[in-house]
Amino acid sequence: MEDLDTLVLRTACDWYGSGLAVVLVTVARTWGSSPRPPGSLMAINGRGETVGSVSGGCIEDDLIHQIREGGVQAACAPDRPTVLRYGISADQAHRFGLPCGGTVELVLESVAAHSRLGELLAACEERRSTERRLNLRTGQAILRQGLRDGVPSLDGTHLITWLGPKARLVLIGAGDLARYLCQMAMSLGFDVVVCDPREDHRASWSMSGVQVTHEMPDDLIVRLKPDARTAVVALTHDPKLDDLALIDALQSDAFYVGAIGSRRNTAQRRERLKEHFDLSDASLARLRGPAGLYIGSKTPAEIALSIMAEVVAAKNGIVAHDLMSVERGKSQTQSPVRHSAGPFALAAA
């Protein structure tokens, strides 16, 4: 499953390539509450068809109405992007379904060759972070290597946005927990890779849209070279496999590295990685274990939810100590009744 930005770019390129007039809409700035953050993309073609979104729906309806009534030129000039602001007044906020006090500023541009959307799409597919500088006077776009998650900026002459590669989740171990994690991760727009060299575990495991590999975990991590948009989670409970992945992942740029297991197993893993593999304290401090946020989960699906919540929080820059980790939650929670979750009990989040 593609992330929304890539889907918008791909669809806009397809429409433009087929001869349709296309308007690309970018959320440039917001004030107060807003349904979509700055940088969000939407495209509208000359038939009024859309992909992506910039609000809860009412702003989209107004833009589609403008295009259907007067064509693309009614929304923006062919060679000059247009800046629109919605929600300034209480009446507009009510009319366009914006939250109370919410204001959103949009930049609309007519897609052309100088928009360079094809090159931008290719950069996203090749996992290259890209800065796009749109000249508001000419509609010309300049692309260059950019930050992973830059905040859009708008002044009188330029709109600057950043598009990074899709978030990617690498799972070590094929099983029920991996299946739930894959489903959740793909619904959140992640690319997903599942690695399991054990043929008996991998033989009956498949899922549409997921890359499954039988490489040894360390070989996979070395090949993928995890970047700052990659998370790695070890799920096998087998140190011979999990540790191989963790050794290299903890020394990579991955934004999240975690492993399931009990608190005791997690402590033993840290000691093992330090003593036998000479990992530094700084590298070990990056390891999230037991992986996940504490939500009292017992089933594989609940554990997957716990882990994905922590992965998404890390992706979005939430500081780990502001969250209730599994380790901290379990140390603070004393339950008089012990529930068994079979082989997942040790990983229960």
TrEMBL record:
This is XdhC family protein. Pfam families: XdhC_C (PF13478), XdhC_CoxI (PF02625). Residues 169-311 form the XdhC Rossmann domain. Gene3D superfamilies: NAD(P)-binding Rossmann-like Domain. Residues 17-87 form the XdhC- CoxI domain. The lineage of its organism: Bacteria, Pseudomonadati, Pseudomonadota, Betaproteobacteria, Burkholderiales.
